[in-house]
Amino acid sequence: MTTAPAAAATAPAGTAPGEGDLRVAVLGVGMMGADHVRRLATRVVGARPVVVADAYAATAHRVAAAHDGVRVAQDPLAAIADPEVDAVVVATPGSTHEELVLACLERGLPVLCEKPLTTEPDSSLRLVHAERATGRRLVQVGFMRRFDEEYAALRALVAGGELGAPLMLHCAHRNAAVPAHFDSEMVVLDSLVHEVDATRFLLGEEVTAITVLHPTSRRDAPAGLSDPTFALLETAGGRLVDVELSVSTGVGYEVRTELVAEGGTAMIGLDRGPLVATSTGRRGRAIPPTFVERFAQAYDTEVQVWADAARAGTTDGPTTWDGYAAAAVCAAGVASLRGGGVRVEVELDEEAR
Ligand SMILES: NC(=O)c1ccc[n+]([C@@H]2O[C@H](COP(=O)([O-])OP(=O)(O)OC[C@H]3O[C@@H](n4cnc5c(N)ncnc54)[C@H](O)[C@@H]3O)[C@@H](O)[C@H]2O)c1
Protein backbone atom coordinates (compact mmCIF):
# COMPACT_ATOMS: atom_id res chain seq x y z
CA MET A 1 0.00 0.00 0.00
CA THR A 2 1.32 3.45 -0.87
CA THR A 3 2.59 5.59 1.97
CA ALA A 4 2.71 9.37 2.07
CA PRO A 5 5.29 10.87 -0.25
CA ALA A 6 7.37 13.62 1.26
CA ALA A 7 5.66 17.01 1.02
CA ALA A 8 6.98 18.84 -2.03
CA ALA A 9 7.87 22.48 -2.33
CA THR A 10 5.15 24.72 -3.69
CA ALA A 11 6.00 27.76 -5.75
CA PRO A 12 4.87 31.25 -4.77
CA ALA A 13 1.85 32.64 -6.61
CA GLY A 14 2.63 33.69 -10.19
CA THR A 15 5.23 31.02 -11.01
CA ALA A 16 6.71 31.86 -14.42
CA PRO A 17 6.53 29.20 -17.16
CA GLY A 18 9.89 27.50 -17.66
CA GLU A 19 11.58 25.81 -20.64
CA GLY A 20 11.44 22.27 -19.26
CA ASP A 21 7.96 22.53 -17.77
CA LEU A 22 5.64 19.56 -17.87
CA ARG A 23 2.91 20.52 -20.37
CA VAL A 24 -0.42 19.46 -18.92
CA ALA A 25 -3.86 18.92 -20.46
CA VAL A 26 -6.78 19.24 -18.05
CA LEU A 27 -9.92 17.34 -19.08
CA GLY A 28 -13.17 18.57 -17.58
CA VAL A 29 -12.84 22.11 -16.28
CA GLY A 30 -15.83 22.36 -13.96
CA MET A 31 -15.20 23.00 -10.30
CA MET A 32 -12.21 20.69 -9.68
CA GLY A 33 -10.69 20.94 -13.16
CA ALA A 34 -10.74 24.75 -13.18
CA ASP A 35 -9.16 24.72 -9.72
CA HIS A 36 -6.39 22.39 -10.98
CA VAL A 37 -5.79 24.66 -14.01
CA ARG A 38 -5.39 27.64 -11.65
CA ARG A 39 -3.10 25.61 -9.40
CA LEU A 40 -0.92 24.48 -12.35
CA ALA A 41 -0.78 28.03 -13.72
CA THR A 42 0.10 29.77 -10.47
CA ARG A 43 1.41 27.49 -7.73
CA VAL A 44 2.90 24.25 -9.04
CA VAL A 45 6.62 24.38 -9.88
CA GLY A 46 7.84 22.86 -13.16
CA ALA A 47 4.44 22.31 -14.78
CA ARG A 48 1.91 24.45 -16.61
CA PRO A 49 -1.50 23.96 -18.21
CA VAL A 50 -1.37 24.10 -22.02
CA VAL A 51 -4.65 22.51 -23.16
CA VAL A 52 -8.14 22.20 -21.68
CA ALA A 53 -11.18 20.27 -22.91
CA ASP A 54 -14.73 20.15 -21.68
CA ALA A 55 -18.06 18.80 -22.93
CA TYR A 56 -19.20 22.44 -22.85
CA ALA A 57 -17.01 24.44 -25.22
CA ALA A 58 -18.01 27.71 -23.50
CA THR A 59 -16.70 26.38 -20.17
CA ALA A 60 -13.40 25.35 -21.77
CA HIS A 61 -13.00 28.74 -23.46
CA ARG A 62 -13.79 30.64 -20.24
CA VAL A 63 -11.17 28.70 -18.26
CA ALA A 64 -8.55 28.90 -21.06
CA ALA A 65 -9.05 32.66 -21.39
CA ALA A 66 -8.18 33.19 -17.74
CA HIS A 67 -4.57 31.96 -18.23
CA ASP A 68 -1.84 32.76 -20.76
CA GLY A 69 -0.78 30.01 -23.14
CA VAL A 70 -3.78 27.70 -22.64
CA ARG A 71 -5.53 26.34 -25.75
CA VAL A 72 -8.92 24.60 -26.06
CA ALA A 73 -8.95 21.11 -27.59
CA GLN A 74 -11.97 19.92 -29.52
CA ASP A 75 -12.56 17.07 -27.08
CA PRO A 76 -10.70 15.15 -24.34
CA LEU A 77 -9.33 12.49 -26.73
CA ALA A 78 -7.91 15.21 -29.00
CA ALA A 79 -6.22 16.76 -25.95
CA ILE A 80 -4.67 13.39 -25.00
CA ALA A 81 -3.43 12.93 -28.59
CA ASP A 82 -1.94 16.45 -28.76
CA PRO A 83 1.83 16.14 -29.41
CA GLU A 84 2.49 19.15 -27.16
CA VAL A 85 0.95 17.44 -24.13
CA ASP A 86 3.27 15.58 -21.71
CA ALA A 87 0.76 14.62 -18.98
CA VAL A 88 -2.97 14.75 -18.24
CA VAL A 89 -5.28 15.67 -15.36
CA VAL A 90 -8.69 13.96 -15.62
CA ALA A 91 -11.39 15.94 -13.81
CA THR A 92 -14.50 14.88 -15.72
CA PRO A 93 -17.28 12.94 -13.93
CA GLY A 94 -16.29 9.44 -12.73
CA SER A 95 -18.35 7.65 -15.40
CA THR A 96 -15.95 8.96 -18.09
CA HIS A 97 -12.67 8.12 -16.32
CA GLU A 98 -12.08 4.61 -17.70
CA GLU A 99 -12.06 5.67 -21.36
CA LEU A 100 -9.89 8.73 -20.74
CA VAL A 101 -7.35 7.00 -18.47
CA LEU A 102 -7.08 4.15 -20.99
CA ALA A 103 -6.34 6.64 -23.76
CA CYS A 104 -3.58 8.19 -21.59
CA LEU A 105 -2.10 4.74 -20.91
CA GLU A 106 -2.11 3.96 -24.64
CA ARG A 107 -0.02 7.11 -25.25
CA GLY A 108 2.19 6.39 -22.23
CA LEU A 109 1.21 9.68 -20.55
CA PRO A 110 1.34 10.14 -16.77
CA VAL A 111 -2.17 10.94 -15.52
CA LEU A 112 -3.66 12.40 -12.35
CA CYS A 113 -7.20 11.00 -12.26
CA GLU A 114 -9.61 12.63 -9.85
CA LYS A 115 -11.36 10.25 -7.48
CA PRO A 116 -13.13 7.93 -8.02
CA LEU A 117 -10.76 6.06 -10.35
CA THR A 118 -13.97 4.70 -11.89
CA THR A 119 -17.48 4.31 -10.52
CA GLU A 120 -17.42 0.54 -9.99
CA PRO A 121 -14.79 -2.13 -9.25
CA ASP A 122 -14.76 -4.03 -12.57
CA SER A 123 -13.73 -1.00 -14.61
CA SER A 124 -11.17 0.01 -11.95
CA LEU A 125 -9.70 -3.49 -12.13
CA ARG A 126 -9.45 -3.17 -15.93
CA LEU A 127 -7.34 -0.04 -15.36
CA VAL A 128 -5.11 -1.89 -12.85
CA HIS A 129 -4.42 -4.47 -15.59
CA ALA A 130 -4.06 -1.90 -18.38
CA GLU A 131 -1.51 0.11 -16.41
CA ARG A 132 0.43 -3.06 -15.54
CA ALA A 133 0.56 -3.95 -19.24
CA THR A 134 2.46 -0.71 -19.92
CA GLY A 135 5.24 -1.88 -17.57
CA ARG A 136 5.23 1.58 -15.95
CA ARG A 137 3.49 3.44 -13.12
CA LEU A 138 1.47 6.06 -14.94
CA VAL A 139 -1.66 6.74 -12.84
CA GLN A 140 -2.07 8.70 -9.61
CA VAL A 141 -5.59 8.71 -8.15
CA GLY A 142 -6.84 11.97 -6.61
CA PHE A 143 -7.16 10.86 -2.99
CA MET A 144 -5.77 14.17 -1.81
CA ARG A 145 -6.21 13.58 1.91
CA ARG A 146 -3.00 11.52 1.86
CA PHE A 147 -1.20 14.80 1.13
CA ASP A 148 -2.89 16.79 3.91
CA GLU A 149 -0.33 17.61 6.61
CA GLU A 150 -2.61 16.37 9.41
CA TYR A 151 -3.42 13.03 7.74
CA ALA A 152 0.27 12.54 6.92
CA ALA A 153 1.17 13.26 10.57
CA LEU A 154 -1.45 10.80 11.83
CA ARG A 155 -0.17 8.16 9.42
CA ALA A 156 3.39 8.79 10.68
CA LEU A 157 2.14 8.44 14.28
CA VAL A 158 0.59 5.05 13.47
CA ALA A 159 3.59 3.86 11.47
CA GLY A 160 6.05 5.04 14.16
CA GLY A 161 4.24 2.98 16.79
CA GLU A 162 4.30 5.82 19.35
CA LEU A 163 0.69 5.18 20.40
CA GLY A 164 0.90 1.41 20.19
CA ALA A 165 -1.34 -0.73 18.01
CA PRO A 166 -4.34 1.05 16.44
CA LEU A 167 -7.76 -0.28 17.54
CA MET A 168 -10.43 1.96 16.01
CA LEU A 169 -11.08 5.12 14.03
CA HIS A 170 -14.02 7.47 14.62
CA CYS A 171 -14.67 9.60 11.53
CA ALA A 172 -17.06 12.44 10.77
CA HIS A 173 -17.58 13.91 7.30
CA ARG A 174 -20.01 16.83 7.17
CA ASN A 175 -21.02 19.10 4.30
CA ALA A 176 -23.17 22.21 4.66
CA ALA A 177 -25.08 21.31 1.48
CA VAL A 178 -24.85 19.19 -1.68
CA PRO A 179 -26.22 19.68 -5.21
CA ALA A 180 -29.88 18.74 -5.85
CA HIS A 181 -28.96 15.54 -7.77
CA PHE A 182 -27.06 14.08 -4.77
CA ASP A 183 -28.83 10.96 -3.48
CA SER A 184 -28.15 8.46 -0.67
CA GLU A 185 -26.00 6.19 -2.87
CA MET A 186 -23.84 9.17 -3.89
CA VAL A 187 -23.09 9.74 -0.20
CA VAL A 188 -21.38 6.33 -0.27
CA LEU A 189 -19.76 6.69 -3.71
CA ASP A 190 -18.68 10.34 -3.48
CA SER A 191 -18.22 11.10 0.23
CA LEU A 192 -17.54 7.81 2.02
CA VAL A 193 -14.93 6.93 -0.63
CA HIS A 194 -12.58 9.46 1.02
CA GLU A 195 -12.97 7.79 4.44
CA VAL A 196 -12.41 4.39 2.83
CA ASP A 197 -9.12 5.56 1.34
CA ALA A 198 -8.15 7.36 4.57
CA THR A 199 -8.79 4.14 6.51
CA ARG A 200 -6.59 2.09 4.15
CA PHE A 201 -3.92 4.83 4.26
CA LEU A 202 -3.93 5.33 8.04
CA LEU A 203 -4.20 1.69 9.11
CA GLY A 204 -2.24 0.18 6.19
CA GLU A 205 -4.69 -2.67 5.61
CA GLU A 206 -7.69 -3.49 3.46
CA VAL A 207 -11.35 -2.97 4.37
CA THR A 208 -12.95 -6.42 4.36
CA ALA A 209 -16.62 -5.71 5.20
CA ILE A 210 -18.99 -2.77 5.34
CA THR A 211 -22.39 -2.00 6.83
CA VAL A 212 -24.24 1.18 5.86
CA LEU A 213 -27.22 2.33 7.95
CA HIS A 214 -29.58 5.27 8.08
CA PRO A 215 -30.69 6.58 11.44
CA THR A 216 -33.77 8.81 11.59
CA SER A 217 -33.27 11.43 8.89
CA ARG A 218 -33.14 15.14 9.61
CA ARG A 219 -36.55 16.48 8.67
CA ASP A 220 -35.16 19.14 6.33
CA ALA A 221 -32.96 16.71 4.33
CA PRO A 222 -33.16 17.30 0.55
CA ALA A 223 -35.60 15.09 -1.41
CA GLY A 224 -34.18 11.64 -2.20
CA LEU A 225 -31.67 11.83 0.59
CA SER A 226 -31.71 10.24 4.01
CA ASP A 227 -29.29 12.31 6.09
CA PRO A 228 -27.16 11.45 8.08
CA THR A 229 -25.64 8.12 7.01
CA PHE A 230 -23.68 5.82 9.31
CA ALA A 231 -21.08 3.35 8.01
CA LEU A 232 -19.13 0.68 9.84
CA LEU A 233 -15.95 -0.56 8.15
CA GLU A 234 -14.14 -3.74 9.26
CA THR A 235 -10.49 -4.18 8.34
CA ALA A 236 -8.30 -7.20 7.65
CA GLY A 237 -6.63 -6.76 11.06
CA GLY A 238 -9.97 -6.81 12.91
CA ARG A 239 -10.10 -3.06 13.46
CA LEU A 240 -13.38 -1.13 13.33
CA VAL A 241 -13.98 2.27 11.75
CA ASP A 242 -17.23 4.16 12.31
CA VAL A 243 -18.14 7.01 9.98
CA GLU A 244 -20.88 9.60 10.34
CA LEU A 245 -21.67 11.28 7.04
CA SER A 246 -23.91 14.33 7.06
CA VAL A 247 -24.38 16.24 3.83
CA SER A 248 -26.94 18.92 4.64
CA THR A 249 -25.90 20.40 7.99
CA GLY A 250 -26.07 24.02 6.82
CA VAL A 251 -22.97 24.66 8.95
CA GLY A 252 -19.75 24.20 6.94
CA TYR A 253 -17.24 21.56 5.89
CA GLU A 254 -16.09 19.44 8.82
CA VAL A 255 -13.89 16.39 8.46
CA ARG A 256 -12.58 14.82 11.64
CA THR A 257 -10.76 11.58 12.42
CA GLU A 258 -9.95 10.23 15.86
CA LEU A 259 -7.56 7.31 16.21
CA VAL A 260 -7.99 5.07 19.24
CA ALA A 261 -4.83 3.08 19.92
CA GLU A 262 -3.57 0.87 22.75
CA GLY A 263 -1.41 3.66 24.16
CA GLY A 264 -3.61 6.72 23.61
CA THR A 265 -5.75 8.62 21.14
CA ALA A 266 -5.08 11.25 18.48
CA MET A 267 -7.54 13.51 16.69
CA ILE A 268 -7.18 15.51 13.46
CA GLY A 269 -9.57 17.93 11.77
CA LEU A 270 -10.22 20.31 14.64
CA ASP A 271 -10.74 23.82 13.36
CA ARG A 272 -7.56 25.75 12.70
CA GLY A 273 -6.75 29.45 12.40
CA PRO A 274 -7.07 32.28 14.91
CA LEU A 275 -9.27 31.87 17.98
CA VAL A 276 -11.64 34.83 17.69
CA ALA A 277 -13.77 36.35 20.45
CA THR A 278 -16.76 38.44 19.36
CA SER A 279 -19.56 40.54 20.84
CA THR A 280 -21.77 37.43 20.81
CA GLY A 281 -19.86 36.31 23.89
CA ARG A 282 -18.47 33.28 22.08
CA ARG A 283 -14.91 32.39 21.26
CA GLY A 284 -14.09 30.12 18.31
CA ARG A 285 -12.34 29.37 15.03
CA ALA A 286 -13.84 29.69 11.57
CA ILE A 287 -15.22 26.51 9.95
CA PRO A 288 -14.10 26.18 6.29
CA PRO A 289 -17.14 26.48 4.00
CA THR A 290 -16.11 23.67 1.61
CA PHE A 291 -13.42 21.07 0.91
CA VAL A 292 -11.67 23.56 -1.40
CA GLU A 293 -10.60 25.68 1.58
CA ARG A 294 -10.14 22.79 4.05
CA PHE A 295 -7.87 20.80 1.74
CA ALA A 296 -6.19 23.67 -0.20
CA GLN A 297 -2.70 22.65 0.97
CA ALA A 298 -3.43 18.97 0.25
CA TYR A 299 -4.52 19.69 -3.36
CA ASP A 300 -1.42 21.84 -3.97
CA THR A 301 0.92 19.17 -2.58
CA GLU A 302 -0.92 16.39 -4.43
CA VAL A 303 -0.48 18.09 -7.81
CA GLN A 304 3.13 19.09 -7.06
CA VAL A 305 4.05 15.51 -6.12
CA TRP A 306 2.33 14.26 -9.29
CA ALA A 307 4.08 16.84 -11.51
CA ASP A 308 7.50 16.06 -10.01
CA ALA A 309 7.04 12.34 -10.73
CA ALA A 310 5.45 12.94 -14.15
CA ARG A 311 8.48 14.97 -15.27
CA ALA A 312 10.45 11.78 -14.67
CA GLY A 313 7.88 9.80 -16.70
CA THR A 314 6.17 8.10 -13.77
CA THR A 315 3.70 8.77 -10.94
CA ASP A 316 3.65 8.70 -7.14
CA GLY A 317 0.92 8.61 -4.47
CA PRO A 318 -2.35 6.63 -4.57
CA THR A 319 -2.28 3.86 -7.19
CA THR A 320 -4.81 2.19 -9.49
CA TRP A 321 -4.95 -0.60 -6.88
CA ASP A 322 -5.91 2.01 -4.25
CA GLY A 323 -8.62 3.27 -6.62
CA TYR A 324 -9.84 -0.28 -7.26
CA ALA A 325 -9.90 -1.22 -3.55
CA ALA A 326 -11.88 1.92 -2.70
CA ALA A 327 -14.33 1.24 -5.55
CA ALA A 328 -14.84 -2.32 -4.30
CA VAL A 329 -15.60 -1.13 -0.75
CA CYS A 330 -18.02 1.53 -2.00
CA ALA A 331 -19.83 -0.97 -4.26
CA ALA A 332 -20.23 -3.20 -1.21
CA GLY A 333 -21.48 -0.15 0.70
CA VAL A 334 -24.15 0.52 -1.92
CA ALA A 335 -25.16 -3.19 -1.74
CA SER A 336 -25.45 -2.83 2.05
CA LEU A 337 -27.65 0.24 1.66
CA ARG A 338 -29.88 -1.46 -0.94
CA GLY A 339 -30.17 -4.48 1.37
CA GLY A 340 -31.50 -2.28 4.18
CA GLY A 341 -28.26 -2.14 6.17
CA VAL A 342 -26.96 -5.68 5.79
CA ARG A 343 -23.29 -6.45 6.37
CA VAL A 344 -21.52 -7.00 3.02
CA GLU A 345 -18.08 -8.53 2.63
CA VAL A 346 -15.63 -6.92 0.21
CA GLU A 347 -14.13 -9.14 -2.47
CA LEU A 348 -10.82 -8.07 -3.99
CA ASP A 349 -9.05 -9.82 -6.87
CA GLU A 350 -5.82 -10.44 -4.93
CA GLU A 351 -4.10 -11.83 -8.03
CA ALA A 352 -4.18 -8.33 -9.53
CA ARG A 353 -2.37 -6.76 -6.57
N1 LIG B 1 -10.71 15.18 -4.68
C1 LIG B 1 -11.76 15.87 -4.28
O1 LIG B 1 -11.82 16.34 -3.16
C2 LIG B 1 -12.88 16.10 -5.24
C3 LIG B 1 -13.84 17.07 -4.96
C4 LIG B 1 -14.87 17.27 -5.89
C5 LIG B 1 -14.91 16.53 -7.04
N2 LIG B 1 -13.96 15.59 -7.26
C6 LIG B 1 -13.98 14.76 -8.47
O2 LIG B 1 -13.60 15.57 -9.59
C7 LIG B 1 -14.31 15.15 -10.76
C8 LIG B 1 -15.09 16.35 -11.31
O3 LIG B 1 -15.96 16.83 -10.31
P1 LIG B 1 -16.48 18.35 -10.29
O4 LIG B 1 -17.06 18.54 -8.95
O5 LIG B 1 -15.43 19.25 -10.79
O6 LIG B 1 -17.65 18.26 -11.36
P2 LIG B 1 -18.22 19.42 -12.30
O7 LIG B 1 -19.54 18.95 -12.76
O8 LIG B 1 -18.10 20.74 -11.63
O9 LIG B 1 -17.19 19.42 -13.54
C9 LIG B 1 -17.10 18.37 -14.47
C10 LIG B 1 -16.83 18.99 -15.82
O10 LIG B 1 -16.61 17.93 -16.75
C11 LIG B 1 -17.31 18.26 -17.96
N3 LIG B 1 -17.60 16.99 -18.64
C12 LIG B 1 -18.57 16.09 -18.38
N4 LIG B 1 -18.48 15.03 -19.18
C13 LIG B 1 -17.42 15.28 -20.00
C14 LIG B 1 -16.81 14.56 -21.05
N5 LIG B 1 -17.23 13.36 -21.43
N6 LIG B 1 -15.75 15.14 -21.67
C15 LIG B 1 -15.27 16.35 -21.29
N7 LIG B 1 -15.81 17.07 -20.30
C16 LIG B 1 -16.86 16.53 -19.66
C17 LIG B 1 -18.53 19.03 -17.52
O11 LIG B 1 -19.04 19.83 -18.58
C18 LIG B 1 -17.98 19.84 -16.37
O12 LIG B 1 -17.49 21.10 -16.79
C19 LIG B 1 -15.20 13.97 -10.32
O13 LIG B 1 -14.52 12.77 -10.54
C20 LIG B 1 -15.35 14.21 -8.82
O14 LIG B 1 -15.62 13.05 -8.07
C21 LIG B 1 -12.93 15.38 -6.40
Automatic annotation (TrEMBL):
Keyword NAD among UniProt keywords: yes
Any idea where the GFO/IDH/MocA-like oxidoreductase domain is? 151-266
Q: Which residues form the Gfo/Idh/MocA-like oxidoreductase N-terminal domain?
A: 22-143
- Which top EC class is given? oxidoreductase
Q: Which reaction does it catalyse?
A: myo-inositol + NAD(+) = scyllo-inosose + NADH + H(+)
Task: Report the SUPFAM superfamilies cross-referenced here.
Answer: Glyceraldehyde-3-phosphate dehydrogenase-like, C-terminal domain (SSF55347), NAD(P)-binding Rossmann-fold domains (SSF51735)
Q: Which UniProt keywords apply?
A: NAD, Oxidoreductase
Q: Which InterPro entries match?
A: Gfo-Idh-MocA_inositol_DH, Gfo/Idh/MocA-like_OxRdtase_N, GFO_IDH_MocA-like_dom, MI/DCI_dehydrogenase, NAD(P)-bd_dom_sf
EC number of this enzyme? 1.1.1.18
Q: Name one Pfam family in it.
A: GFO_IDH_MocA_C3
Tell me the domain of life.
Answer: Bacteria
Q: How does it assemble?
A: Homotetramer.
Task: Name the protein family.
Answer: Belongs to the Gfo/Idh/MocA family.
As for what it does, the entry says: Involved in the oxidation of myo-inositol (MI) to 2-keto-myo-inositol (2KMI or 2-inosose).
HAMAP family per UniProt: IolG
The name this protein goes by in its record: Inositol 2-dehydrogenase
Recorded name of the encoding gene: iolG
